Amino acid sequence: MPQSVLRIDRDRIADDEVGKPAVFGTILSGDPREIHRNLYDGDGGRFASGLWQCTPGVVAMKDWPYDEFCILLSGRVVITPEGGLPQEYRAGDALVLPMGFTGTWDIKETVRKHYAVQKRQTALVRLKARLRGWLGGGARKGVPEAAF
Fold first, then answer.
1. Cα 7 to Cα 10: distance, rounded to the nearest angstrom
2. Could you read off the pLDDT of 91-135 as tens digits, one per residue?
3. Cα–Cα distance for residue pair 115/73, rounded to 1 Å
4. 44 near 56, Cβ under 8 Å?
5. Pairing state between β 94-97 and 66-81
6. Which residues pair with 49 in a beta bridge?
7. Fewer CB within 10 Å: N-end or C-end of the chain?
8. Of the segments 17-21, 42-46, 127-131, which one has the largest average pLDDT value?
């Protein structure tokens, strides 16, 4: 079935929206409040894309569960990976936050971003992929792919 292109506009979050206490990590200081607008899910729930905003504060993240690509639309944040050096990002910057990331987000000015995440595969999905690889990269003759 053909799919339509989905536009993810920055105004899907109103400028005066406040949000709920941040839950993407442990709040270390401030009162960061986030708004999350997941606008697309694909690949059986493994891929998601949308818009996110968070007000100033410091949040510690541990073992981030996604590979995430994002583009900052507004704001300023200093991201410090565990054992690494702080790096500042501003509106217009694009970055990848790798799965497993541990570190802090020090949000200096309210950040709004477009994001796209690839979620972790379950152990069963990973096992099925390995089995397909061991069996020659695909379904066995006469056995539908869904049987794996």
1. 10
2. 999 999 999 999 999 999 999 999 999 987 666 666 776 677 678
3. 10
4. no
5. antiparallel
6. 40, 116
7. N
8. 17-21
Q: Give bridge partners of residue 33 from the DSSP assignment.
A: 21
Residue carrying the six token digits 């504060």: 57
User: In whole angstroms, how far apart are CA 58 and each of 25, 87, 103?
Assistant: 9, 14, 10
Q: What distance in Å separates the CA atoms of residue 41 and residue 48, rounded to the nearest whole number?
A: 4
The answer to whether residues 141 and 96 touch, using CB atoms and an 8 Å cutoff, is no
